[in-house]
Amino acid sequence: MRELLLFCEDSFHENFVVPIIRRIAEDQALSPAIKVASSVGGLPKLVGEFKDLLREVARMKSSPPECIVVVADANCLGHNERKNLFVDMIRNHHPGFEQIGYAAQLGGQEWAEDVAGAMDLTRAEIAEASFGLFTKAIRGRFAAWKTSAH
Description:
Elements: E1 3-8, H1 11-27, E2 33-38, H2 43-59, E3 67-73, H3 79-93, E4 103-104, H4 112-118, H5 121-127, H6 129-147
Parallel strand pairs: 1-2, 1-3, 3-4
Helix pairs in contact: 1-4, 1-6, 2-3, 5-6
């Protein structure tokens, strides 16, 4: 089974992004295992805990996850600065991984799963460019999984 590791800045991201990833996977007839880890306390704490997580992944006896998705708020650093920060950390620990980038700027945590299940992804991708980059990258990763032997 394919494995995706989702690392989020807070529980809202988990509640919203997991259903989006599942929808995209279902559209491509995939059902990857999604492991979720989250941080609470803002970007500095997120960075430290993500570095710790990468060290743990590097020490794993089994294969590392095939995809790591990092979701962080846009309120501290801009999209490119955050993306570069995490790309550098991922490359330092796992040179084969690539960062796809996504800036979440949404509210309404209590409805996150319902919204994710009901929303028109195509319309959202057009309206919010960073969301479009995220869904395109996830679709691309899943398409590659479907064409490669596991």
